[in-house]
Specification:
By secondary structure, this protein is of the alpha+beta class. Helices cover about 20% and strands about 40% of the residues. It is elongated, with a radius of gyration of 30 Å.
Length: about 150
């Protein structure tokens, strides 16, 4: 299965820092993301060919399937504190704690390639003139299907 895809992403973000003391800083920020993705599946002819070797149900062309349209919208943010205490033995100490919520855009899983069922496989092979003994040798399906259909 091949895909033609397109995506659009729009986002807005901001961040602010507030100093409560000379040694304490509050940081807060947020972001809004709008993702839109469109996938147009095009079946691979190798997987969908109507033959006893490929096992598909399509015998010509590349039928384009309906586009898969997906949208994700998400608010994310971050907040935290930085503290630089004044210690007698060093002036390079900073303690901090942050909480953040992230976002990762989604995607699409490919649909099933549309393989033929056992009955379709047998009907296609017989319609294409394949000898039933060849089917029996390669698949072992012919006696089971013919006995069950009697």
């Amino acid at each position: 299965m091949d895909y033609f895809n397109s995506s659009q992403t729009h986002a807005f973000s901001t961040k602010s820092e507030f100093f409560t003391d000379d040694d304490l800083k509050l940081t807060a920020g947020f972001r809004y993301t709008d993702d839109r993705k469109t996938f147009t599946p095009v079946p691979s002819q190798a997987l969908l060919a109507r033959s006893m070797w490929a096992g598909g149900t399509v015998s010509s062309g590349y039928p384009e399937l309906a586009p898969i349209k997906q949208t994700w919208r998400e608010w994310t943010g971050r907040i935290g504190l930085d503290w630089k205490p004044e210690l007698g033995f060093t002036d390079d100490t900073m303690l901090y704690a942050f909480y953040s919520r992230g976002y990762k855009g989604g995607g699409a899983n490919p649909p099933s390639p549309g393989f033929a069922t056992g009955e379709e496989f047998l009907a296609n092979a017989l319609a294409d003139g394949v000898n039933p003994l060849v089917l029996d040798f390669y698949t072992g399906m012919y006696p089971v299907l013919t006995l069950n259909s009697v």
